[in-house]
């Protein structure tokens, strides 16, 4: 099971078996060699879930594709639930075609899934887009700067959380998310992944960004309940640093889940990890 970090502030839940937009996110692509890409699951996926990937664009009603000249891949997650935070890598799309979790096949009735280094997109869907049976557009990524296409709006995706745009100034051959993977919420990760500043990319050889990082993503689960793991614990601010009345402050994170130095802090909300004797606790403080 993926590590869930307990914090305090407000309620945020991770859907167990609901499949909604943003339940997965693209975190890597390589448009050179035999082609590769990677995703992270931001919600648990039930056993035997099938997700489709296509490098074509949606048709006008959003149930299928606007072209029959590109490809569709069918990914079955396998016989077990896939935990939220799992990184899944799809390798050698144009050759052996393997998935690090479950199984993936190239639909027999299409002309081939082929990520173009000169600019392309990948969409993930529920329901087969090749047969006009899409029920939901889950996520997407593009490596170009020519816009999202005529029918993009019908997908319901957006470029700030569920659709990644890489290469605003030039098409990129490869890229991977290199931002934080700890102490963040699902919404926080969506925002971080959708921001190209958190990616390492290549305009030359996409293979140079391999291998993709398969480290699990850890979630900060926030609650409005009082934290009682360390009785009588409270935090305060002294000389623009956070201090505790018991034990010591180990780490300080901002609301985006990024670890920061505990000094010269400005006004805002922070999540603080405190250790006292053999106990640790995440506590929030607004300053």
The dominant shape is elongated
Q: Could you tell me the mean pLDDT? A: 86
Indicate the proportion of strand residues.
Answer: 25-35%
Give the helix/strand class.
Answer: mainly beta
Explained architecture:
It contains one helix and 20 strands. β6 (87-91) and β7 form a beta hairpin. The chain is mainly β and 287 residues long. 3% of the residues lie in helices and 33% in strands. The model is unreliable at 1-18 and 222-228 (pLDDT under 50). It has one helix at 186-193; strands at residues 4-6, 24-30, 36-41, 50-54, 72-76, 87-91, 98-99, 103-106, 121-126, 136-142, 163-165, 174-177, 199-202, 219-221, 235-238, 241-244, 248-253, 259-260, 269-276, 279-286. The strands form five sheets. Strands 7-6-3-2-12-13 form a six-stranded antiparallel beta sheet, with no helix packed on it. Strands 8-5-4-9-10-11 form a six-stranded mixed beta sheet, with no helix packed on it. Strands 18-17-19-20 form a four-stranded antiparallel beta sheet, with no helix packed on it. It has two domains: 14-217, no CATH class; 226-286, no CATH class.
Write the layout of secondary structure elements.
Elements: E1 4-6, E2 24-30, E3 36-41, E4 50-54, E5 72-76, E6 87-91, E7 98-99, E8 103-106, E9 121-126, E10 136-142, E11 163-165, E12 174-177, H1 186-193, E13 199-202, E14 219-221, E15 235-238, E16 241-244, E17 248-253, E18 259-260, E19 269-276, E20 279-286
Parallel strand pairs: 1-14, 10-11
Antiparallel strand pairs: 2-3, 2-12, 3-6, 4-5, 4-9, 5-8, 6-7, 9-10, 12-13, 15-16, 17-18, 17-19, 19-20
